[in-house]
Structures are given as C-alpha cells and as structure tokens.
Automatic annotation (TrEMBL):
InterPro entries: Nucleotide-bd_a/b_plait_sf, Ribosomal_uL23-like, Ribosomal_uL23/eL15/eS24_sf. Belongs to the universal ribosomal protein uL23 family. GO terms for biological process: translation. One of its GO terms (cellular component) is ribosome. One of its GO terms (molecular function) is structural constituent of ribosome. Part of the 50S ribosomal subunit. Contacts protein L29, and trigger factor when it is bound to the ribosome. This is Large ribosomal subunit protein uL23. One of the early assembly proteins it binds 23S rRNA. One of the proteins that surrounds the polypeptide exit tunnel on the outside of the ribosome. Forms the main docking site for trigger factor binding to the ribosome. It comes from the Bacteria. Keywords: Ribonucleoprotein, Ribosomal protein, RNA-binding, rRNA-binding. Pfam families: Ribosomal_L23 (PF00276).
Amino acid sequence: MSDPRSVLIEPVLSEKTYALLSANKYTFRVHERATKVDIRRAVEQQFGVRVRDVRTAWVKPKPKRRGVHSGHRRRWKKAIVTLHPEDSIELFEGQANE
C-alpha cells in the first residue's frame, strides 16, 4: 500500500480501546490488505510517533435482521498499535477526556 491515508480507515473508539490507552495502545480500523509493516509506516507518518508493536485481528461479522430478511455485516480488520512510552496520539487523548 503506497498511500498511508488509505491504510488507516478510522480510529476505533469504545470502552475497551479507552482502557488500552493507559498501556499506550491505540486501535484503528485498517484496510483489509494492509500488512503490519504498512500499518506501522502509516501511523508513524501520519502522527509522527514511534511504533513499538502492531497486532492485527479480524472482527467477525454481526448478524443483522430486518423483518423476515436476515444477513450479516461485513468482517473488518483492526490493528492495535503499541507506541513508544514517550509518545502519544492527541486524537485519542482529546476524545477520552470528554
């Protein structure tokens, strides 16, 4: 993946991800074909931080139903990025304080 903006789709904001902030771990929804190296480069370029570790996981699709029609959402890939202890991303910090 050449463009770092196409690798990171959006930050994942939930109670679990806010709990990970204390361990300096940030969670992102990423492109399906993004590798750990692509994710590391994208975070370092976009936020100007040093990445220590990248872990990826596939989020299973949830079943959805509307009346008699049933289906499911698409699966998606998430990445949990661990930063150097001296670094942080203000995007998350500002949201956590609200």
